[in-house]
Amino acid sequence: MTAVDRALLPATAGTATDGWLTIGGCHTGELIERYGSPLFVYDEDDLRGRCREAVDAFGQGRVVYATKAFLCRAMARLAHSEGLLLDVATGGELHVALAAGVPASDITVHGNNKSAAELIAAMDAGVAYIVVDSFDEMDRIDALVAAGHRVPRVVVRVTPGVAAHTHAYIATGQDDSKFGFNLGNGDAHRAITRAERSATMELVGTHCHIGSNVFDVGGLGRAAEVMATMAAPLDLPVLVLGSGLGVAYVNGEETPSMRRWADVVLDACASVGVRSAVTVEPGRALVARAAITLYTVGTIKHIPGVRTYVAVDGGMSDNPRPVLYGSGYEGGLARAPDAERPLEARVVGKHCESGDVILHEARLPADTAVGDVLFTPVTGAYGQSMGSNYNRVTRPGVVFVSEGRSRVVVRRETYDDLLLTDIDDDY
Ligand SMILES: *Cc1c(COP(=O)(O)O)cnc(C)c1O
After folding, report:
1. How much distance in Å is there from the Cα of 280 to the middle of ligand 1?
2. CA 19 to centroid of ligand 1, rounded, Å
3. Which residues are catalytic?
4. For residue 68, which atom of ligand 1 is closest to its CA?
């Protein structure tokens, strides 16, 4: 029944004199009128605040933003201006980060299957380091250096055999994983030894990342212990512990603070005498809460004795997480963000699938009506970045708001954008 928990809203969320939700001093109804619906609204102050919390907790140069959570040039510049490095996992992410003006020396490169072209782009640009993920990749680097490309700094990704308590699709630290070199079966040590002796790579550290949206810092602490024990005798410049720090998506959820996470992993490292720069790669925890998505209600269908469907003008193309992982969110009306929500409904999108659900078990105000603007909080991570053009639906715009001003950082797609890559020539 209760309203959306204010703690789930971006830091500068407020209420306008007419009762509407404001973010960054901007009236959400006016934002929808000006920029169209649906719309991602990011609170720039919230983003900066979270970046600062991370740097305060881990230290300057020790926080790397995992750009896959949400990437555009404005975001890359914002994170870099707050003192973060940027982590990219594909040639495409590298391209966007470089296009934003972030120096290659502040970019780290991941990926479990990097192509030769992606490795060349990273090596020639001179990235901070490449996180090597397989023996085949090492072979590829050998060949590229032999062909004249510059020797890269590398970090070896280790799979520590620690299972994260999260959805199976985003658990990556267990033995049965496509990522990294297995610690238990000796592959990790073989990879580290090979990199140490190699003339084609400069080994600067080791890395692990056990999964995403982890609520139990204990799991992150255990992975840190395993890694620290392995890394201490190597005494390499960096030890990267990935991320995984979860965020609260629905009322009542609680997540560890950045500070608590730092205490747990830094203590684990200190206790075994690690002297390396302990580095983390948060994605979700930096950007998820900073954004809300605004949608417009198009139809409401009451099926007596079954359920009520509230359909909005977006769906799995702007937020695939409910379909992929069964993720839960809250929803509310932008004109009455603190209203009681007695109406039980399922909020769905406009795609041609029954799986196209935004809120499985939504609570909404009783007077929710066609034309209302609905907001879903905590949609800043893995929504826009995982979006698609399914059903040839054009993707929403993204605006940054701060101190009463708004600016478009990703413009809404047009129908003509759908034809940009579509070739209709005769043979
Ligand atoms: C996805 C990913 C991250 C970020 O994870 P979050 O849980 O979003 O913080 C960090 N490092 C690596 C290697 C990743 O794949």
Report:
1. 9
2. 37
3. 352
4. 1
CA of 45 to the centre of ligand 1 (A): 22
User: Quick one: 18 and 109 in the same domain?
Assistant: no
- Which residue CA neighbors atom 11 of ligand 1 most closely? 242
* CATH number of the domain to which 98 belongs: 3.20.20.10
Domain count, the chain: 2
Burial 149-159 (b: 16+ CB within 10 A, else e): beebbbbbbbb
Looking at the domain assignment, is residue 403 inside a domain? Answer: yes
Nearest to 138 by CA among 203, 78, 71, 44: 203
Q: Output the tens digit of pLDDT for each of the chain's 427 residues.
A: 699 999 999 999 999 999 999 999 999 999 999 999 999 999 999 999 999 999 999 999 999 999 999 999 999 999 999 999 999 999 999 999 999 999 999 999 999 999 999 999 999 999 999 999 999 999 999 999 999 999 999 999 999 988 777 777 777 778 888 999 999 999 999 999 999 999 999 999 999 998 888 888 888 888 999 999 999 999 999 999 999 899 999 999 999 999 999 999 999 999 999 999 999 999 999 999 999 999 999 999 999 999 999 999 999 999 999 999 999 999 999 999 999 999 999 999 999 999 999 999 999 999 999 999 999 999 999 999 999 999 999 999 999 999 999 999 999 999 999 999 999 888 7
Choose one of 219, 254, 287: the last residue of a domain.
Answer: 287
Residue of 87, 107, 249, 378 best suited for mutating to test ligand 1, as the one with most atoms within 8 Å of CB:
87
Atom of ligand 1 nearest to the CA of 212: 7
CA–CA distance, 419 with 396 (Å, rounded to integer): 17
CATH value at residue 379: 2.40.37.10
H helices, E strands: number in the chain:
11, 21
| Of the candidates 111, 106, 62, the residue with the CA atom closest to the CA atom of residue 91 | 111
Residues with C-beta less than 6 Å from any ligand 1 atom: 66, 68-69, 110, 209, 212, 242-245, 281-285
